[in-house]
């Protein structure tokens, strides 16, 4: 119920930008752009009503492509295929950007409610961070994030609450959900790696290792294969029916440059260099390499914790990997806060970290659009000209510093899902061999 109320507030926040009048294309009037920035009620959903053939109800990917200058056409959108399907469904019976926003909200709200339910089952009261979270109000209907967040949380729910099945079965089912997440917005797929390591090490205390085995290699490979296979199967129909349009969405993202639209530390830290082709080509290499390095470090530190406790902390490692991605990737859109929010419930990091991040995110999320408004209207927008630019910089750099700190804080924190078994320390400094059971030794 609380999640539903917060989602309703999130919709009302974005609906402030719609109407009251509409032009021939269904765009809200008057002064749509000025209002969306000045009132900080901008949403990609409303904005993309025009420019991607969504208003023309063109089925995505099948007939389109991308021009040499990077313009998408023929119904292609810059998101993975399942998000494209949701966009098409949301526009199917709409003839204005307001109708598109309302229909999209109705389609996505059940995913947000399911996320709240699963978090409540997993973490109890900590789920209020989602049910009452300010990022849900700010970003629930900013873009198409709620289904992908539901995939990430749903995978955790399957692993830790489907008690009747063995770990390998639960993890493979979770990997399928993570593969679906890839087809929504890519990022849940990265969690398949720590989940595979969790299965490889036999879960809590190695208790679910196969008989006589130190590692469950087949289980880990099954997890990786299920995630990859699901992602492939979700994409395959589009790749076969419209290979040019399907590939255009990936091509568009690969061409994205570090600029104001990406809102990452790479832009704010190197603004004077972003017009250089050399800088952009360097970022195309440096940013993904650093992201991958952060993934490797998170998994390595998680493995070291396995040696101390007997359990690989796959949820904590997933959270740390996400921090590395958000900090180091060349794109850091405001709504990405929704990706991180469930991990504040799933992992018992100190509340100070949570409060600081939510404050920094709000400063950035509101400040960036107010700053856009000052740019658009030609008003002074420098750091010494008022609080807008100051709040934006506090948000951008405060959030960056907090993500760096949270990377380690998550890795050192306890899971809020199954604390007693998930973090029970071992007396030995190394991970002990599994103790043979009666079934394993053949004794009766």
Automatic annotation (TrEMBL):
Keywords: Membrane, Transmembrane, Transmembrane helix. The keyword Membrane applies. Residues 416-444 are annotated as: Disordered. The keyword Transcription does not apply. The chain crosses the membrane at residues 72-93, 100-119, 139-159, 171-200, 220-241, 285-306, 312-329, 336-369, 389-411. InterPro entries: UCP010361. This is DUF2029 domain-containing protein.
């Amino acid at each position: 119920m609380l999640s539903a109320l917060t989602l309703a507030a999130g919709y009302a926040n974005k609906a402030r930008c719609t109407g009251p009048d509409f032009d021939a294309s269904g765009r809200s009037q008057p002064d749509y752009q000025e209002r969306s920035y000045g009132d900080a009620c901008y949403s990609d959903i409303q904005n993309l009503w025009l420019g991607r053939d969504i208003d023309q109800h063109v089925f995505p990917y099948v007939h389109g492509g991308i021009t040499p200058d990077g313009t998408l056409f023929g119904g292609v959108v810059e998101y993975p295929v399942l998000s494209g399907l949701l966009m098409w469904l949301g526009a199917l019976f709409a003839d204005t950007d307001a109708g598109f926003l309302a229909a999209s909200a109705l389609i996505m709200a059940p995913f947000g409610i399911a996320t709240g339910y699963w978090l409540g089952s997993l973490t109890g009261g900590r789920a209020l961070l989602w049910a009452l979270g300010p990022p849900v109000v700010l970003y629930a209907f900013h873009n198409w994030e709620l289904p992908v967040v539901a995939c990430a949380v749903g995978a955790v729910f399957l692993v830790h609450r489907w008690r009747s099945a063995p770990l390998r079965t639960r993890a493979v089912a979770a990997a399928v959900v993570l593969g679906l997440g890839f087809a929504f917005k890519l990022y849940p797929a990265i969690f398949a790696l720590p989940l595979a390591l969790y299965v490889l090490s036999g879960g809590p205390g190695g208790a679910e290792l196969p008989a006589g085995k130190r590692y469950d290699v087949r289980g880990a490979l099954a997890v990786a294969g299920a995630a990859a296979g699901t992602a492939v199967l979700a994409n395959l129909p589009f790749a076969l029916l419209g290979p040019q349009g399907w590939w255009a969405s990936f091509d568009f993202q690969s061409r994205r440059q570090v600029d104001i639209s990406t809102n990452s530390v790479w832009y704010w830290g190197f603004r004077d260099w972003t017009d250089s082709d050399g800088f952009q080509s360097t970022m195309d290499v440096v940013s993904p390499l650093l992201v991958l390095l952060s993934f490797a470090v998170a998994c390595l530190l998680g493995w070291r914790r396995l040696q101390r406790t007997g359990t690989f902390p796959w949820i904590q490692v997933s959270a740390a990997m996400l921090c590395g991605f958000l900090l180091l990737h060349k794109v850091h859109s405001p709504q990405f806060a929704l990706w991180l929010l469930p991990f504040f419930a799933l992992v018992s990091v100190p509340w100070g970290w949570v409060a600081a991040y939510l404050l920094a995110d709000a400063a950035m999320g509101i400040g960036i659009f107010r700053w856009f408004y000052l740019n658009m209207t030609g008003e002074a927008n420098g750091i010494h000209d008022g609080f807008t630019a100051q709040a934006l910089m506090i948000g951008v750099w405060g959030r960056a510093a907090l993500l760096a700190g949270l990377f380690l804080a998550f890795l050192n924190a306890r899971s809020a899902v199954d604390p007693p078994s998930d973090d029970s320390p071992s007396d030995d400094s190394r991970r002990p061999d599994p103790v043979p059971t009666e079934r394993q030794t053949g004794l009766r």
